[in-house]
Amino acid sequence: MNSAQGLLSPHDRPTAAWSTVAGRLGESTMGDVLRWGAGGSVNFAGGFPDERLFPMWHVQDALDDVLARHGSQALQYGSAQGAEWVREAVAGHLERRGVLTSPRTMLLTSGAQQAIDLVTRLYVDPGDVVVTTSPTYFAALELFEAAGAEIVTVPLDERGLDLDRLDAALGDPRAKVCYLITDHQNPTGISLPAEQRPLIADLMRRHACHLIEDDVFGDIAFEPPAPPIQRWAPDRVSYVTSFSKGLSPGLRTGVLAAPADVIGKALALRENTDVCPNTLAHAVAGELLRSGAYHRLLPRLCARYRTRRDALLASLERHLAGRAHWTTARGGFFTWVTLDTATDAEELLKAAARSGVVFLPGSRFRRGGEPEGVQPEGGKPDGGKRAELRLSCARLEPTEIEEGIGRLAGLV
Ligand SMILES: Cc1ncc(COP(=O)(O)O)c(C=O)c1O
Question: What is the pLDDT of residues 292-329, one digit of tens each?
């Protein structure tokens, strides 16, 4: 994940050649999201939580408690694995979620993104295959590409994964890692069906593949989610989550729950990278878990995000019924809209931005030759590409959502 806009012009000074990894890095979709986030547009593009919903007073109280209880040690370097008392509090939280874990088999990271990066670096050499869904989270795709991985994709829709295609993809001996977002997926909002989860775990075992299970939106649930895949194959799965969506991304409190040998290697790698987590920020998150404040606040937060999702679905129905179809997420921030007529989503985005609305085009979330929005039966008269749009309503009030969808519909 980077936002290197304006910093990537060719060298204008004599210098050493870039490393292979640096040579692969370019401007990212995240750069666009951060830029658009700054404008006055109705912004459906970002995946940020709403800062107006951050529990400011609780964070202040937790910070006071941490400083009172731990004194100056709260500001010292800490354990590279994360403070034990914070890991205990996080383990209690993950057990509620159905994850099989313990403080010993857990590493606290700088957000979920660092956990994905560490596990990728443990397994993936250039030329190895990473199997994932089409579509999936763009910053994970960019990370796998930077590692030199070949990305092989398996279709995902509201019925879940195509398990035969997953089986075939994992059959490639170069396939070492699979990356899946189990619940309220970024970008589609889709949750994998409960009945598929043990079957996916079996496939990981059968093909000796390591699964990175990303559950970063697991806590933003409008109905109870099914247990994660990790439950059926704790020896094959690195379960990744964070408190970025349910609490605050600025606290950078991420979690890797994985087999002991993965934790051991990841720990060594992280010591070389950032020495130890942000001890103070993680202690604040730990205190909010320990005191129960996080679990008391979560239902209200989920209710607010649910209201916004409902407003978005109602606006889509009012303005685009019969011209598009869309997913209904059971949690998280995202709705995936597919227009029924041939449209280029990047062109639509340019026109929309001029009208003061931004979204992310579906192509940013696809790789590996999986066709974007091609007519399924190829039989429709317009025959061409159907625009796919990722819409996030997390930071918008219902009136803004209605205004934005109205403007967008006027361009379709
Ligand atoms: C699917 C997914 N995974 C991981 C991340 C990174 O999360 P964090 O902020 O905890 O690093 C994000 C951020 O939006 C995400 O959408």
Answer: 999 999 999 999 999 999 999 999 999 999 999 999 99
Query: How far away, in angstroms, is 190 Cα from ligand 1 center?
Result: 16
Using an 8 Å Cβ cutoff, are 357 and 408 in contact? yes
Q: Is the pLDDT of residue 381 over 60?
A: no
- Domain range list for the chain: 29-54+296-409, 56-294
> Which one of 3.90.1150.10, 3.20.20.450, 3.90.226.10, 3.20.20.510 gives the CATH number of domain 29-54+296-409?
3.90.1150.10
Residue 305 main-chain phi, psi, to 5 deg: -65, -30
User: For 129-155, how does the pLDDT look when each residue is reduced to its tens digit (9 = 90+)?
Assistant: 999 999 999 999 999 999 999 999 999
pLDDT at 30 over 70: no
CA of 157 to the centre of ligand 1 (A): 21
- Report the residue count for the chain: 412
According to DSSP, the residues that pair with 42 across neighbouring strands are 357
What is the pLDDT confidence band of residue 5, given thresholds at 50, 70 and 90? low
29-54+296-409 and 56-294, same CATH topology? no
Distance from the CA of 383 to the center of ligand 1, in angstroms? 35
According to the 3-state scheme, what is the secondary structure of 340-406?
EEECCHHHHHHHHHHCCEECEEHHHHCCCCCCCCECCCCCCCCCCEEEEEEEECCCCCHHHHHHHHH
254 in contact with ligand 1, CB cutoff 6 A: yes
CATH class given for the domain over 56-294: alpha beta
